[in-house]
Amino acid sequence: MLGEYRITGRGASAIAADIESAVGTGALPPGEALPPLRELAAELDVNPNTVAAAYRLLRDRGVIETAGRRGSRVRSRPATAPRDAIRIDVPSGVRDISTGNPDPALLPPLGDALAAAAAHHARGPALYGGPPVDPELSRLARAALDADGVPDGPVGLTSGSLDAIERVLAAHLRPGDAVAVEDPGWGSLLDLVPAMGLRTVPVALDDEGPLVPEVARALAAGVRALVVTDRGQNPTGAVMSAARARELRGLLAGHRHVLVIDDDHVHGLADLPLHCLSGATDRWALVRSTAKAYGPDLRLALYTGDAVTVDRIRGRYRLGAGWVSHLLQRTVVHLWESGAVDAAATARAYGERRDALVRALAGRGVTAHGRSGMNVWVPVSDETGAVAGLLQRGWAVAPGARFRLRSAPGVRLTVSPLASDDIEPLADAVAGVLRPAGTGRFD
Question: Is 157 strand, coil or helix?
Fold first, then answer.
């Protein structure tokens, strides 16, 4: 057990810090079993309660997991080893379609918007004690939410979608609670949940969103929260259909205590209508980010939700970050009011690349998925072989392990860097590497 590594420390915090450091450096790999409490206590000459406290700290941080009599072991994907680390080095001359970034050519220039924000600041700078959300931004955001049928609720701001989702979860959940997540799903969310000391319960999905029997199973297992992506699901491009949303809302009506979070991160470049689950339960939130439509460095996401949830997040935010910069808020106001982004044209540009790639792959006998957003998901039988084979053919793709819990292997292709004349060569390369594989669902 533990091979050559020897755990050190006298107090619970020191022991936990030593183990967490060893996990971060790889000295204790994922799946490694830790010594039983009494055995480690005897080795360190400390009370077994001290070791128990150390293990509890590590569980709360998402570093280890405990399975009753089978003992404790390093999580298969510990919080100290983020999924973004599962990547490949891209040699010179290889096209990188693995990053998930938007096309810079489709992002708006920010010069005029930043100048407008600075001018607004000159007329009346934001000071301590002012409203955290710019009134005009709140009005515009609420109008867009109303147009999409999102239930009425106050608007709040955070620094990005993941920040908002973390704060919503923290407003209601405690370490040990279970959260239902899409599988495959957003790698950062799959890291965040265990890092908060919460348990992930994977839910399989197809092109229309989470499967109803899978969500029912998760609810029966006692999950306290459900996180769904309404459009442009990462990595599969799935979109919640109206029929699927109706079924899920009907199911959730019998579980009013469950927290529901809708992630609508592709708002502003979505090419299909929004069908959300917000309001199906007593506690809910919907999150929208500016990252994909206006640029990842414009760190602003808005959220709405029931009054209790929003009030809790605002109160906690006020004690930490305080507010999102009003300069950023006014920048977004100018972008929205000036029409700097043609959402329909941007969605069409991504859609043409995505749909062309899916068609080209289908014509070569390769199953691929991607109904919205900027990614295409290709199920494979040998993920490592597929990534390596495509790299040899000049294409760097994202390994599916970054996005999976229990679902079948796959690779993610981001269409943002592609031009129309890239589609056929890429499809040839994928078909040359893969044997046709996959079904209509991603498990």
Answer: strand
